[in-house]
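[job 0412] stage=complex_fold ligand=S-adenosyl-L-homocysteine status=START
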Amino acid sequence: MSKSNFSQKKSFIDLNESDSEKLIKEIGEKPFRINQINNWIYNHCVKTWDEMINLPRSLTNQLKKKIRLHPLELIEISGENDKINSTQKFLFKTIKGNKIESVLMHDNNRTTICVSSQSGCILDCNFCATASMGFLENLSSTEMLDQVLHLASYSNSKITNIVYMGMGEPLMNYRNVMKSGVLLKNKMGLGSRRITISTAGISSKIRQIADDNYKFKLAISLNASDEDTRKRIMPITTKYSLSDIMEAADYYYKKTKKFITFEYVLLKDVNDSINAANNLKNLLKTFPCKLNIIPYNEIDGDYKRPTVKNIEAFLSCFESVPFIVTVRWSNGTDINAGCGQLAVKELV
Ligand code: SAH
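[job 0412] stage=complex_fold status=DONE, emitting C-alpha cells
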C-alpha cells in the first residue's frame, strides 16, 4: 500500500493486520505499537488518538495526520445515563455520509447494544419508522463493530448483549453482518450466544446461517400468523411466504439444534385478535422456540398499540403452551429509541 492510500476515508479500525503493520512501519515505529493501539481501542474503547497516553507523542501526531481512528463519526446522543435502566440513542455519520442510529440499554444486570446493519432499510415494513428513510447503504463490518466500540465507551457497565435490531435488515447484508459478529467475538470477547441477529424472514439466508455454522442467536420477526395479514404489513412476504419462512426455521433448528426466538409486534385491530393468537399458537406449538410479544411503539402513521386489556387477553391464549413467552416493553420510547422507532428524518 502506498503512503497516499492511508487517507482519511479509511480508518485505523478498517485496516487488516498487514495494512496496520505497513502503516506503523511507514511511520518508522516498531510492530509492538500495534498491540498497544489495539489494547486502547478494544479494551479501553478510546475515542481519540490523544487518549493513547503510553504512545510517543511523535507517533500519535503522525497517526492523526495519516488516518482517522474510527470509521463512524458520532453526531449526537439523546437520553441520559444517570438513572437505573436508562436508554440512550446515538446518531452517527458513516464514511459515505449517511446517518444511522444505535441504542444503549441498561436493564437490571444486562447492558445491551442495538446495532444497525443498514442506513435506512431495504425492506418496507409499513409499521416501522426506518422504512420511511428508504434504503441508503449496507454498512461495512467495521461500521457495525464501531457502533459497539463507541457505545461501550459511554457505558458504565460491561456490555453483555448485542442485538442486530436497529435500522436495516441484517440478512440482506449477510456477509458484512456475519463478519462483524465474528469481529465482536474476536476483538471484544463477546460470545456468539450473546449476539442476536433479527430478521424479517429471508428464508434462503436463514438456511445459509445454519449451513455456514454460525453460532449467533436467531430471531425471526413473524408479526402475523396468516399469509394475508403478513403480506399487508410486511410486503417482503410476497417473496418469502410465511410457510416458506417456517420451513427455513425448521431446517435451521434441525441443523443447529438452537432455539429460535419469534418476535410478534402487537398492532391494534391488525394482528391482536384472539383468533390471531390461536393461529400463532398453532403455528408454533410443535416448534422448539421462544415467543417475544412486542406491544407496538407508535410512530407517525395509522398503526396503534392495543390497550393493556387487549394485550393481556392476547397473552392469556398462551398460558399453557410448550414454549416460553415474554413481553418486551421497549424502554426509550420517550426519545424514539424503542423497537422500530429508529429513523433519521433530515438526511445529509
Ligand atoms: N429487520 C430486522 C431487524 C430490525 S426491526 C427485523 O425485521 O427483524 C427489530 C424488531 O422491531 C422487529 O421484530 C420488528 O418487527 C420490530 N418493530 C419494528 N417497528 C416496530 C414498532 N414501531 N414498534 C415495535 N416493534 C417494532
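The CA atoms of residues 162 and 195 lie 5 Å apart.
[job 0412] exit 0
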